[in-house]
């Protein structure tokens, strides 16, 4: 007889739960309330963007979820476990690629396995597979200075993926790239998510990037950072670049722009 799981059926699908989280920084210039009463539930396999202007607490939220920064009050659980310190299971990608200049692309990816004490031969095979996935198979011996910005960021993404994380936290990973490289990496990222069954929390200040990539967009308002609204993006997947011409895409962009106008982030005369 099959046992029917009970009781936790509502929570098993939840990957990240942020409950009433507040973050206050105390610095030389006094206290800064970076986040106020944040509640957010992210389902397994979901792609969620956090969208908001500079300084609204996006990076702070990501750092709290990664466990790299302690919260002031509230609670965060990842896979049902309360976050109390750095969580080694997540993959993290920052805006700057933080590659080590004296290591080749492959060696940069392998850092992840060295730190974790993983099987080196297996990790190297996976690193090469990841490089192939992002079309960098011919660059494993190249040093960061020999790579373009987009290629460097691809290497960072491979490094974050080496240990097959089920959760990726990405803080404006394409923010410093030119528009065309950014388009290609967005497409690559969606394929990686599909193939690896990942949950992604993606931070951006680009309205169109958030719509293109996400299942849901969390709109944040500045000072103190609060969740203003959560918008479901009901566009079919897999998404192609042409989806940006879809009238519904324009409608989402208009709605999100209006929210920021209402918040005083955009001012038109
Ligand atoms: P965002 O990523 O949305 O641009 P951040 O999360 O970096 O915003 O910052 C949110 C607010 O918290 C800002 O006002 C910022 O100045 C402040 N802040 C961030 N980190 C620190 C810190 N380590 N010490 C003091 N204030 C900080
Ligand atoms: Mg930031």
CATH fold assignment of the largest domain:
Rossmann fold
Count of helix runs: 7
Major β-sheet, in short?
A: 6 strands, mixed
What is the 3D shape?
A: globular
CATH class of the largest domain: Alpha Beta
**Structure ligands:** adenosine-5'-diphosphate, magnesium ion
Give the count of structural domains: 2
CATH superfamily of the largest domain: P-loop containing nucleotide triphosphate hydrolases
The parts where pLDDT drops under 50 for at least 5 residues are 1-10
Report the sheet-strand fraction: 25-35%
Q: In CATH terms, what is the architecture of the largest domain? A: 3-Layer(aba) Sandwich
Helicity level, as a percent range? Answer: 25-40%
Side-by-side strand order of the widest sheet: 6-7-8-3-9-10
Oligomer: single chain
* Mean pLDDT across every amino acid position: 92
Cα-to-Cα separation, first versus last residue: 69 Å
Run of helices and strands: EEEHEEEHHHEHEHEEH
């Amino acid at each position: 007889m099959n046992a029917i799981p009970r009781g936790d059926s509502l929570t098993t699908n939840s990957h990240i739960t942020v409950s009433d989280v507040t973050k206050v920084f105390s610095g030389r210039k006094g206290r800064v309330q970076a986040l106020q009463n944040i509640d957010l539930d992210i389902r397994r396999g979901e792609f969620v963007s956090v969208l908001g202007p500079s300084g609204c607490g996006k990076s702070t939220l990501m750092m709290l979820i990664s466990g790299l920064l302690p919260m002031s009050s509230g609670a965060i659980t990842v896979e049902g476990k309360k976050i109390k310190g750095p969580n080694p299971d997540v993959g993290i990608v920052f805006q700057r690629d933080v590659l080590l200049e004296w290591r080749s692309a492959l060696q940069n990816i392998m850092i992840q396995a060295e730190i974790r004490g993983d099987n080196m031969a297996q990790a190297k095979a996976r690193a090469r597979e990841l490089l192939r996935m992002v079309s960098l198979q011919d660059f494993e011996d190249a040093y960061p200075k020999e790579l373009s910005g987009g290629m460097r960021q691809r290497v960072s993404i491979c490094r974050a993926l080496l240990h097959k994380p089920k959760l990726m936290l990405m803080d404006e990973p394409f923010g410093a790239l030119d528009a065309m490289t950014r388009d290609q990496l967005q497409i690559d990222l969606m394929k990686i998510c599909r193939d690896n069954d990942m949950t992604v929390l993606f931070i951006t200040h680009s309205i169109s990037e958030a719509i293109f990539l996400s299942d849901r967009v969390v709109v944040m308002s500045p000072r103190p950072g609060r969740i203003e609204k959560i918008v479901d993006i009901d566009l079919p997947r897999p998404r192609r670049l042409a989806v940006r011409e879809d009238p519904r895409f324009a409608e989402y962009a208009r709605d999100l722009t209006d929210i920021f106008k209402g918040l005083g982030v955009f001012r038109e005369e």
